[in-house]
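Human: If only I could read backbone structure tokens as easily as an amino acid sequence. Underneath my words sits a plain record pairing an amino acid chain with its backbone structure tokens. Take your time, and here it is.
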Amino acid sequence: MGTAANTLSEIFRTEFGAVFQCNRYNVYWIEFAGGFSSFKPTDFLHLKQSLEAIDVKEMAENPARFADVVVLNPLCSDRVFVLTLTDVLNFRELLQGAKAMIELNSIIYESLHAMAV
């Protein structure tokens, strides 16, 4: 990612991908399934909600050939995610961890600024 790498902060990483924050452009970069995609904060949250809405139990129990694959086409993104059941679970773990770290950083930031006042 060239010079942009200097402006990225890793938020969360698993063995299947990572989420980075770029404060310069106010975007999150997601590394998953061999590619990088950028998302504005609201689009990132929408992607997470879309992923959480996938019924993994139905995917696992449905014997139809097409049932074990889902296609996600996130808002404002040129990337399409074609995910197997395992991919859905790995992607969920990544985005859930990233969101938890974002919330934790926000709490720490607010606490430190409240102490300074």
Observations:
- The longest helix spans residues 85-116.
- Helices lie at 41-52, 56-61, 85-116.
- Residues 96 and 107 are 17 Å apart (CA to CA).
- The chain has a mean pLDDT of 90.
